[in-house]
Known about the structure:
The protein has helices at 13-29, 34-39, 41-90, 96-100. By secondary structure, the protein is mainly α.
Amino acid sequence: MIQNNNNQKGISILGVLLLGVLLILALSYFNISIKAVVESPTTEDNLDYVRNGTKNLWTEYLEEPVTYVWEEIIIKIFWKPFISNLEHIRNGEPTDFYNAGGNLQMDY
C-alpha cells in the first residue's frame, strides 16, 4: 500500500496580508516613506527599464509561439470541440465521443 505523506504547507492569503502589514510597519519604524521611494527618479527609471525589457521579450520572443499555441492548439483542438459537444448535449444529440465509439462493444 502506498502512502502519500505530503505535509507541505504553503502560506495563506491571510499570511500574505499579515506579512505586508508587518513590512509596512517595519518601513515606517525606520522612517522610510514608500511614496518617496516609488516616486524617486531612480525607481521610475528602473521600472521603465524593466517595463521596456518585458515588452521587448514579449514582442520579440514570446508573442508568436504563445499566440500559435493559444489559437491552434487550445482553441481549435480543445475549446471548439468542447463547446460543440456541450451544444450537442444541450440539444439532446449524441456527442462526438458517443459517435466515435458507436461500434465499440465491451464484454464484461
